[in-house]
Design goal:
The protein has about 80 residues and is mainly α. The protein has one helix at about 1-75.
């Protein structure tokens, strides 16, 4: 009986060790993905900033053109 208990306990400990090893590998893989995302974030943010500046610049130019047209129309009616 005592040998059975020790054998069962040894088997349980081997399973716990295997589970911990798998958990450690899985956790390392997840952190690697997260680290990659964090490393790429500044580049992606800079790209978005460039696109936003381009869009706002284009909008400002179009708005200025509309303002010039309105000013020309107002000058005609006076």
């Amino acid at each position: 009986m005592n040998d059975n208990v020790q054998t069962a306990m040894f088997e349980i400990l081997k399973k716990v060790q295997a589970d911990l090893t798998f958990f450690r590998v899985e956790t390392n893989d997840r952190f690697a993905v997260l680290e990659d995302l964090v490393r790429k974030q500044p580049r992606d943010t800079a790209g978005l900033l460039v696109m936003a500046k381009s869009v706002t610049g284009n909008f400002a130019e179009e708005l200025a053109a509309i303002e010039e047209r309105v000013a020309a129309l107002e000058a005609r009616t006076r």
